[in-house]
Amino acid sequence: MTRPQGIFGREEMRLLCEGLSVAEDRVSDHFRLSEGFWCRHPFEVRTLAELNPDEVTGQALAQVLKLRKSHGKRLRGKDFWRICFQDHNFLETVQREGSKELFLPLLTYVMVHELVHVVRFCTYVQRFELDQEQRQAEEAEVHRLSGKVLKKVPLPHLDQVLRCYEDSAAALHQGHC
Fold this sequence. Notes:
The protein is mostly helical and 177 residues long.
């Protein structure tokens, strides 16, 4: 898996699609979301190659942004969510852990984690704008919920990923184990 400058290659993109599919299904099942939920609350996933410079961070494996799409003559635009996957941080974390087998389970966890944020923001369980203390509490809650969502997913090494970051939800968000 050769990667130019920390950008996902073809195999990583295939695994990202696989992890996203599992994540979307499991999050939808866990929260009992209707079939139309994701249509009413659209999101997109972008990787490092597609991110604007202000969407790149060295502090997280992924981040969720709230954006507004305007619709021509309509008075109001529509909110949508962008999950900005930080390939460089993710690849560095997997390399530091020294196990390629962690790639898919970690990626799946990160996608579940970010989709849980989206669900919480869309259903007004949590506000999008948070101060540092509130953000830490939100990260801990989203980590807990993500573990519940993934509890019965038969994915090798997923239990290792969950245990690795169990002590600190912020550690996962920042790419530290």
